Amino acid sequence: MTENVNTDAAVDGSHGKVGIGIIIRNNIGDILASSSRPLNVMMAADMTEALTIFGGLIFAMEAGLLPSAVESDAQCSLLGWLNKTIHCMAKFGVSLDGPLYWLEEALRWVSPIIMGDRPEIL
Q1: DSSP strand E in 1-122: where?
Q2: Between the N and C ends of the chain, which has fewer C-beta atoms within 10 Å?
């Protein structure tokens, strides 16, 4: 089974906060783990995205997963709705005091969007 890590960051410059969103799915699109969390640092957008990708890989390892791919919008929207969903999770992370994690699920309002993005099983 292959895992895919999708990450995104959201910046609230007016309050000096950053949040990240992470979703890990298997090759048929099932959610294996997800997270929203704040970052306690402000930095350039490219460095924030790099730190977000690194955070996604660390989260995957902590969840006992070995991803075969990492995807991040990094200023280009290649993944459509999934990137928007992860960005919403990142924005939610801005409002948190600490990280939140979900295994084999995601936030209640995020799951239907993610599952709608699942690839069809042949």
Answers
A1: 3-12, 17-26, 31-39, 67-72, 100-103
A2: C
Distance in angstroms (rounded) separating the CA atoms of residues 120 and 122: 6
| Bridge partners (DSSP) listed for residue 5 | 24, 70
Write out the CATH class of domain 3-116.
alpha beta
- The vertex-46 CA angle with 13 and 32, nearest 5°, equals 95
Q: And the tokens for 90?
A: 């990142």
| Domains in the chain: boundaries | 3-116
pTM of the full predicted structure? 0.63
CA dihedral sign of residues 45, 35, 25, 120: negative
Give the model's pLDDT for residue 119: 47
Note the pLDDT tens digit of each residue in 59-96.
998 888 888 888 876 544 344 545 666 677 777 777 78
